[in-house]
Amino acid sequence: YAMSDDPHSLVSWLETHAPGLSGYLYQHQEEAAVRHLFRVATGLDSMVLGEPQILGQVKDAWAVARAHGALGSGLDRLFQQTFSVAKRARTDTRVGANPVSVASTAVRLAQESFARLNESTVLLIGAGETIELAAKHLSEGRVRRLLIANRTLAHAQTLASQHGGYALPLTDLDLHLAEADVVFSATAAREPIVTRVQVEQALRARKRKPMLLFDLAVPRDIEASVAELGDAYLYTVDDLERAVEDNRRGRREAADQAEAIIDLQVARYVETLQANARQAPLKRLRAFGDSTRDELLAKARQQLHNGKPADEVLEQLAHALTNRLLHPPTAALRDAALNNDLELTSAADRLFPEKPGYQHPPVATPIVRTDDADPAP
Predict the structure, then answer these.
(1) Does 93 carry a binding-site annotation?
(2) Binding site annotation covers 23?
(3) 0.70 exceeded by the pTM?
(4) In the CATH scheme, what architecture does the domain 7-92 have?
(5) Residue ranges of region Disordered (predicted)?
(6) Rounded distance, CA 85 to CA 261, Å?
(7) Is 126 labelled as part of a ligand binding site?
(8) What is the per-residue pLDDT across 72-112, written as a single tens digit (0 to 9) for each?
């Protein structure tokens, strides 16, 4: 986002300094640009509707620009308003409240099933994208202990180091399954890697303490018959997809509410900008008058300090102040008269109406001397 009087030159500059960027550039101007930023920060422009990480990324971009002195006052005000609008939209609606991925939905169900997930041990089986996302959501909510088992131990170690977990080779699964209160599994295996027999043995070791299992893989990682065990609660991708679709529907409804909030806030922001623009000439006029007064007053004080008579100083100050203040409008009105600018001359009439009884000073009429005119006596 940028503020520029010449957006085309700005695009050319960006393409020069960042080759290949042109394919990713698109332009929104004025009100459309404000609306776009509000929607991006709120998560309405994301592939995942209401994605909460987007607002943090916008704040990071704002902070970097500010740190490098690239953020002017106008753009800074726009971003501050953006943060306020995004917060309100996410607070007043549920646009980002419901998880819309299988992994995040599974984590939410685990949190709802275990009132104290932070006192539970969680086992992740696999190290792919789905398990990475589950690990991210779990680490944000904090768990007591996080175990990550994978066929390639190095991949498990990398993921464990990122989220404060412990890496295990998949061959040690039997040794640690009983420790897990919650299991998430998402591998590319063609056959189940968690069998009914393994879960039965784990439940006996846990003394029938319940175990929650999420099979996020297709084909399945966990044998379907595990669901028949009394203390095992198994959710499959099909179960979770139904919850995900319900959440997506809820987010779409919330998005409509958020759009209404954004429409209102865009209108208010644009009105504020227009009001400020209307005030700008008045501020410039006031600043010109103040600076002129201060300059001439300082000069008059110096003259008094040097011993110049007060009456003379005051008269010079009055004349100088009048001439300095009236010179710009006088010059502009003279040009307006020459160019037949009726709008400016009528504005002057409104600004400086004639007082009742005012008489214009006489205008001298020039005398044109001809060759046969008698010389003046």
Answers:
(1) no
(2) no
(3) no
(4) 2-Layer Sandwich (3.30)
(5) 352-377
(6) 8
(7) yes
(8) 888 999 999 999 999 888 888 877 666 567 788 888 888 87
